[in-house]
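Hi C.,

You asked whether I'd gotten around to modeling the 115-residue construct. I have! Everything is below, sequence then structure, no commentary in between.
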Amino acid sequence: VQLVESGGGLGQPGGSLRLSCAASGFTFSTYAMSWFRQAPGKERELVARIFSAGRSTNYADSVKGRFTISRDNAKNTVYLQMNSLKPDDTAVYYCNADGNGRVYWGQGTQVTVSS
């Protein structure tokens, strides 16, 4: 099983970044997919989740209206479009797969928001 995140880096306040997570080794379409983040000195927190069919999503209050999670089951990929970035969005972002009694994590990608 692999979850490989990409798209992190340095973003400007008010700017945008798009994260991708390419999955392999499991039946992607049957898993809920999520993005979590962990800032220095803080606990890992759920940012957004999308369920297997892609019709239902959940967001942390801190990112509602700014971030959008989506998935392409044909490409085994989940995305996180991050707009109106804030310095508080600085964290390592982790891709998560949850389903069929199993949980998988990616290695994480650093997002830094700074001018």
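If it helps when you're writing up: The mean pLDDT is 96.

Thanks,
B.
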